[in-house]
Amino acid sequence: MPTLVLARHAHATHDPMPDFDRHLTDEGEAEAALAGRFLSQFPLTHLVSSPAKRTTQTGQAVVDALNDAYRGRPDFNAVELQFEPALYDATVQTWLDTINAIPEDVPGAYIVGHNPIVWETVEQLSGVNLKKFKPSSVAVFRLPSWDVDTFPEPTVRYFGN
User: Fold this and answer.
1) Could you say which residues form the signal peptide (predicted)?
2) Distance, CA of 44 to CA of 79 (rounded, Å)
């Protein structure tokens, strides 16, 4: 039963700088680490991020938490963050293409990016009307297989204050 996690990056600075270069705040770093610890209960081995600084920092915090949690297991293989440039300034179709590119043998995948597209993708997949998808939110889908026509309602968690 594969797991798909769609995530919005943690809280980022609004300092004057190019959007691509915005980094996580101290609060955002703590949120990302907390999300990673929560997500370590799932067998996530395929992790993909937008290349923007705030998403790579969020994704790396999740990778670090997963590797810490998985390290003691006999089948331990370190997970790494992959970058998909198309996830920055993406469309819902870009996210769907990224989801469809997940290899069949992957037990779980995590994709982190930006709103409003993450939010819109979760709503389109599940048919659920989310009121919000704040920074540091994750939507966890438990799927019968990767080849599904209808996605179940996800569990949505928020890791901020």
Assistant:
1) none
2) 8
